[in-house]
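User: Reviewer 2 asked us to show a designed sequence for the structure in our supplementary figure. I'm pasting the structure tokens here. Could you produce the per-position amino acids so we can include them in the response letter?
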């Protein structure tokens, strides 16, 4: 399959290398010079990346590595968006003129960015929103990436629902185990980073600063009292999902579904096993994407949907307030709300899923 991956950071490079080794023709598109410039320079010069997993290294070769949208998207059957969700909206508008009917777009993850595609284009696309990336990974050095962990199950929502057979065909070709969710709203709110990145990073700020970044959030921060906050925020998320007609699924149960081959295991044990043995180090500074992405793109969206549905979200609101104060930024102004997502786009998604709820204006 001809695949274009938008983004050449940790996830984009690693997934691109993994898919290239599976026999796909993969082109990488870099959308800005904000991050990973030396890494991209190496990729562009060599058109290859070294991927290491469980002590074994392999070299993947790419069909192309570019910053040119026209070049990157020419002939693409599947486009995988693998950039921070803060930048989805402007990048989607740049992608739109180059898209054509029949193409499939996969968002890794989505955070409800289907709405931005509906704003940017009327072309007949299949849009798949993933809950998270199928691989935890990091850039080890320019041109080299390291696999930390592979999910045993990956959940996706599809818009429109009529395109689900096409989406399944595309997902099967990627050879990642998958599970289809009811809709893209369910996929958006089950992004695990909405829960663990935000709470973990906000409550880690003193520790990160004290240790000068020598810190392992997943191993250190989720003490019993912090876990009470996780459960409180998780309840608010499930309250919103339930109003949209989705089944209640706690964060730890979703974590077990993603991470454990043994679905009879205790869900809390699965989370802490991942935290102790497979999670990434960091964040190494308070001003990280754990806050600057997942607060405005995740928590602000959850709060906005709660307001629209008249569902209280006091824990979510408090976390946004704390993060905004700590970073001296207005994350609500930066983040996703009904105005930025577009009421008309939200209504189209609700109608496609036959979701009978009244969404009030903010």
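Assistant: Here is a per-position design you can include in the supplement:
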């Amino acid at each position: 399959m001809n695949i274009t991956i938008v983004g050449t950071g940790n996830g984009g490079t690693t997934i691109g290398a993994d898919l290239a080794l599976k026999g796909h023709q993969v082109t990488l598109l870099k959308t800005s010079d904000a991050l990973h410039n030396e890494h991209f320079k190496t990729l562009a010069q060599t058109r290859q990346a070294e991927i290491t997993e469980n002590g074994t290294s392999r070299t993947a070769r790419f069909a192309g590595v570019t910053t040119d949208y026209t070049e990157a998207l020419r002939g693409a059957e599947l486009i995988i968006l693998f950039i921070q969700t803060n930048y989805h909206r402007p990048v989607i508008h740049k992608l739109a003129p180059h898209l054509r009917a029949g193409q499939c777009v996969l968002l890794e993850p989505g955070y409800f960015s289907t709405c931005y595609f509906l704003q940017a284009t009327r072309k007949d696309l299949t849009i798949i929103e993933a809950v998270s990336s199928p691989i935890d990974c990091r850039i080890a050095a320019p041109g080299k990436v390291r696999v930390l962990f592979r999910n045993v199950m990956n959940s996706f929502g599809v818009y429109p629902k009529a395109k689900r057979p096409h989406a399944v065909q595309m997902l099967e070709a990627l050879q990642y185990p998958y599970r289809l969710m009811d809709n893209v709203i369910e996929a958006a709110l089950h992004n695990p980073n909405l829960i663990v990145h935000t709470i973990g990073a906000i409550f880690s700020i003193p520790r990160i600063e004290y240790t000068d970044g020598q810190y392992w959030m997943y191993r250190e921060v989720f003490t019993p009292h912090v876990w009470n906050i996780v459960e409180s925020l998780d309840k608010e998320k499930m309250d919103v999902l339930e109003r949209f007609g989705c089944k209640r699924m706690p964060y730890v149960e979703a974590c077990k579904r993603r991470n454990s081959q043994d679905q009879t295991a205790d869900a809390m044990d699965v989370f802490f096993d991942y935290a102790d043995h497979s999670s990434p180090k960091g964040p190494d500074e308070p001003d990280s994407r754990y806050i600057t992405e997942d607060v405005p793109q995740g928590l602000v969206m959850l709060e906005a949907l709660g307001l629209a549905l008249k569902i209280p979200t006091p824990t979510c609101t408090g976390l946004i307030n704390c993060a905004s104060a700590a970073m001296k930024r207005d994350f609500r102004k930066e983040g996703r709300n009904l105005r930025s997502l577009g009421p008309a786009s939200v209504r189209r998604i609700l109608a496609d899923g036959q979701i009978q709820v009244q969404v009030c204006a903010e």
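For the response letter, you might also mention the following. The chain has a mean pLDDT of 96. The radius of gyration is 19 Å.
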